């Protein structure tokens, strides 16, 4: 399979989105498209979520002559609004899709289950259910490339938190083992990275690197050790800044206008 993969970075949340394209048929999928909302705009009631990253993807697609077939989310993001609803309003023929196991999902065209195909004409990927961070997390595999969402981070950062409703560190461990059982050179595309220790941001790693170096699950860490580590760490984490907006908006695959309305309500309700 000959794929074109192009990353886009949303700096306010350290989020990576990806375009996966079939260069022969000129069709593509967008994975984990991100909106951002500045704290200043919410505080002032400006109600203007930032679509810069999503618009850059639209510009790239137009410049390269691609047609978008799929708008894919690996899970319900808690830290920022998804741009899937916004992009759907611009790309009416694209199918929006997310994992079927997340409760209270609405607004998506397709709910995905383990083994479902994501076809870009003659090139097809598959859905891998990887719950734990949320009950509905899925990963998308195209040939030797797997887009893992928040299931795994870079090896020096570890793994996703498990303190949201329906999260489970035991389930996350099993999902991670499913990924780590793949061939060494399988490339894993990560949804978040914040750098660290002066290194540059990264968006791709390998199964071999994760097995050997991941600080939470590397070197054949036992499930007992992982659950203990994850549970203690999660107790120290704060709620994501935009969770009260992002979670309800993403559950309904909201577009830009509806998200702006939520932000407006948030500003009115906050004490001044």
Notable features of this structure?
single chain, about 270 residues, alpha/beta, Metallo-beta-lactamase, Chain A, six-stranded mixed beta sheet, 8 helices, about 30% helix, about 20% strand, globular
Question: How many angstroms does the end-to-end distance come to?
Answer: 56 Å
At the third CATH level, what is the topology name?
A: Metallo-beta-lactamase, Chain A
Shape: globular
Number of domains: 1
Give the spatial strand order of the biggest sheet.
Answer: 1-2-3-4-5-6
Rg measurement, Å: 18 Å
Number of distinct beta strands: 12
Describe this structure in words.
This protein is of the alpha/beta class. The protein has a single domain (4-238), classed as Ribonuclease Z/Hydroxyacylglutathione hydrolase-like (Metallo-beta-lactamase, Chain A, 4-Layer Sandwich). The chain contains eight helices and twelve strands. The strands form two sheets. It has a six-stranded mixed sheet, covered by helices on one side.
Question: How would you concisely characterize the structure shown here?
Answer:
The protein contains 8 helices and 12 strands. It is of the alpha/beta class.
What is this structure's SSE topology?
Elements: E1 4-10, E2 15-22, E3 27-31, H1 39-43, H2 52-64, E4 67-72, H3 84-90, E5 95-99, E6 110-112, E7 117-120, E8 123-129, E9 138-142, E10 145-147, H4 169-180, E11 187-189, E12 204-206, H5 207-213, H6 223-234, H7 243-251, H8 256-269
Parallel strand pairs: 3-4, 4-5, 5-6, 10-11
Antiparallel strand pairs: 1-2, 2-3, 7-8, 8-9, 9-10, 11-12
Helix pairs in contact: 4-6
